[in-house]
TrEMBL record:
PROSITE patterns: FHA_DOMAIN (PS50006). It comes from the Bacteria. Residues 86-135 form the FHA domain. This is FHA domain-containing protein. Residues 45-64 are annotated as: Disordered.
């Protein structure tokens, strides 16, 4: 094989390699733009208007009586709290069945201990978060504190 053809083949493969690398970089940049766009960035004027129109939340009165889903697929769902533990997860026998890829089959348990409710993560893969802090041991849950499992956010309300 002549040296010229061998050299042109090498250059051709090098060009194809660089085109592949540039295509990968382009896809990664596009994915990053989509991810950044999915984070809801509220304009400051709209945020200020919303803050002016909202009243301060009333202080919780009494112990929590219900679990309310505030965000996610089940937003608006209410579950009355009782002495029985509330199992949260994707399992059909859970008290709060989550249709969420980031929730485990048996994700967390909410139990009444004394006068307060305690949340326990049951060894989930993606974790349970109480007010942006990952739960590793059972923790008491005050009223109106956001609890996040996957894309679902809920809280205890009086």
């Amino acid at each position: 094989m002549p040296a010229v053809i061998l050299q042109l083949t090498r250059v051709g493969f090098l060009i194809l390699l660089w085109l592949f690398v540039l295509a990968v970089i382009r896809v990664i940049r596009a994915d990053m733009r989509v991810a950044a766009a999915s984070i809801v960035a509220e304009p400051s004027a709209k945020r200020a208007r919303r803050q002016r129109n909202t009243r301060p939340a009333p202080a919780p009165s009494g112990p929590p009586r219900q679990l309310v889903v505030t965000a996610g697929h089940l937003a608006g769902t209410r579950i009355a709290l009782s002495q029985n533990p509330i199992l949260i997860g994707r399992a059909d026998d859970s008290t709060l069945v989550l249709d969420d890829d980031f929730a485990s089959t048996r994700h967390a348990r909410l139990t009444l201990q004394g006068q307060s409710y305690w949340l326990e993560d049951l060894g989930s893969t993606n974790g349970t978060y109480v007010d942006r802090t990952r739960v590793s041991t059972p923790v008491p849950i005050p009223a109106l504190t956001p609890i996040r499992i996957g894309r679902t956010v809920f809280e205890l309300r009086p």
